[in-house]
Amino acid sequence: MELTLMQVQAALFSLMAHFPESGHNGETLKMVSEDYFEDMLEERVTAKEFEMAVKHSRRKCNFFPKVSDIISSCHELRSNPPKRITVDRLSIPEETDNLTEEEIEQNKQRVEIICKQLSGTLTMEEAIKAQEKLSTFSKK
Questions:
Q1: d(CA 109, CA 40)
Q2: Residue-level pLDDT at 89
Q3: By the number of CB atoms within 10 A of the CB, which of 24, 33, 70, 88 ranks highest?
Q4: Sequence-distant contacts of 49-54: CB under 8 A, at least 24 apart
Q5: What is the DSSP string of 28-55?
Q6: How much is the pTM?
């Protein structure tokens, strides 16, 4: 999947929350994100590679990661990919003996909610509300 400027901006805003001492604010991050995006495109970084490199950089850097830190993480991950199974590989089998089509669809939605929460695109509160809404819908 191709990396977008919006994905870079979202990742940098997330990093700002992890590194509040960086001194960045919304305005500086908007400007810096364009440079990060341009540099990532020059390195031919995919959206998934960028996501993994940002997480890797967040874990290893003591300060807000520079673009060179993220590029280094990307190169490191390319040469030595993680051996664990990533969240996006989780799935529910299409065929089951005991579940109705509606139950299978609800389970898929539950997995999607969990994946979004684990990837950081949903807060815990949003995930709980989504699960509760799904449960309320399934009781009708």
A1: 32
A2: 43
A3: 70
A4: 49/74, 49/77, 49/78, 50/3, 50/7, 50/8, 50/11, 50/74, 51/7, 51/11, 51/119, 52/77, 52/82, 53/77, 54/11, 54/14, 54/15
A5: HHHHHHHHHHHHHHHTT--HHHHHHHHH
A6: 0.58
